[in-house]
Design brief:
40% helix; 10 strands; 12 helices; alpha/beta; 8-stranded parallel beta sheet
């Protein structure tokens, strides 16, 4: 496994980050343990979760993924692992059950620490913006968590470039801990949202980038075809998938991914990840898996070296996305 600094920090993280949204949802505890064991064995030291995972299960408000990770962590070398989680979504009933205000964050972080069975969180991220709470309130609260040692680094997810820059400015002016990581939606088949402004902003400001859905909700693996647009999947209702499955240009681009994969004798997923890893702004794509076989399919991506011509071909084929 290869390692890289997270943005401008000195923290070293693996070039693949294990996403755990499936834990407690489509992967039960036993399978989740097996996935984490294999990831750690392969050198992945960076795991990403969120307090709301998996809240869409009937009767649950979240926390299952963190709980499973916490059980797994008990007999693991905690200092060797970088655990990232998020705050923002609704976790309990009542007026303050969600948001980025002080009241919610201070309870949510204690709940996450308890579920994870740890006394600190390596990377604590705001899951979505909260336009009802002043930035100063959010950032001062996060800074207090860093100063207390409960959180090591902070980051954000799903922020547009202007809001990321405004948060960085407030932190700099107030001399508070700042966002050192951004988690955007980014893949071969979802490019413009990140590439328009965020990529340049992150490079300029030294902000690490850990994209989610780097395989376009499974589309880049090749399981969707012109003749089979509804394969067995847990993500078939994804808005991105719905936009892609009837787009003939998307299948043309997928044909190119397949051709390059055959040249390298690797699964198509590794080509999509290798393309993303070639981008200077990207730190570590977040790879999700609900089975060991899905994880094995992508582990070799860090060793795939695409030629300049192949990168140009992929860029051109997916420019419209």
């Amino acid at each position: 496994m290869q390692f890289i600094r997270l943005g401008r920090t000195g923290l070293k993280v693996s070039r693949l980050c294990l996403g755990t949204m499936t834990f407690g949802w489509s992967a039960d505890e036993t399978e989740s343990f097996a996935i984490m064991n294999r990831a750690f064995e392969a050198g992945i030291n960076f795991f990403d979760t969120a307090d709301i995972y998996s809240r869409w299960i009937a009767g649950n408000q979240g926390g299952e993924s963190e709980t499973i990770i916490g059980k797994w962590l008990k007999d693991k070398p905690r200092h060797e692992l970088i655990i990232a989680t998020k705050v923002r979504g609704r976790m309990w009933n009542g007026a303050n059950g969600e948001g980025l205000h002080r009241q919610h964050i201070l309870k949510a972080v204690e709940d996450s620490l308890r579920r994870l069975q740890t006394d600190y969180i390596d990377l604590y991220q705001t899951h979505f913006p909260d336009d009802t709470t002043p930035l100063e309130e959010t950032l001062s609260t996060l800074d207090s968590l860093v100063q207390s040692g409960k959180v090591r680094y902070i980051g954000c997810s799903n922020y547009p470039a202007w809001l990321l820059m405004k948060n960085l400015w407030v932190s700099d002016v107030q001399r508070w801990a700042r966002f050192d990581c951004l988690q955007p939606h980014y893949s071969l088949f979802h490019r413009s949202e990140f590439e328009r402004e965020l990529a340049a902003a992150c490079l300029d400001q030294g902000v690490g980038v850990i994209p989610y859905s780097p395989l376009a909700a499974g589309f880049a693996t090749g399981k969707y075809t012109r003749d089979n647009r509804q394969p067995e999947t847990t993500r078939e209702s994804s808005g991105l998938i719905q936009r892609l499955i009837n787009n003939m240009q998307a299948y043309d681009a997928l044909d190119l991914v397949r051709e390059i994969a055959q040249t390298h004798a690797v699964p198509m997923a590794q080509i999509a990840l290798a393309w993303q890893l070639s981008k200077p702004a990207v730190t570590a794509p977040i790879i999700g898996a609900r089975t060991i076989s899905q994880l094995e399919e992508v582990l070799g991506a860090v060793d795939v070296k695409l030629s300049a011509e192949q990168l140009q071909q992929l860029d051109a084929a997916t420019a419209m996305f």
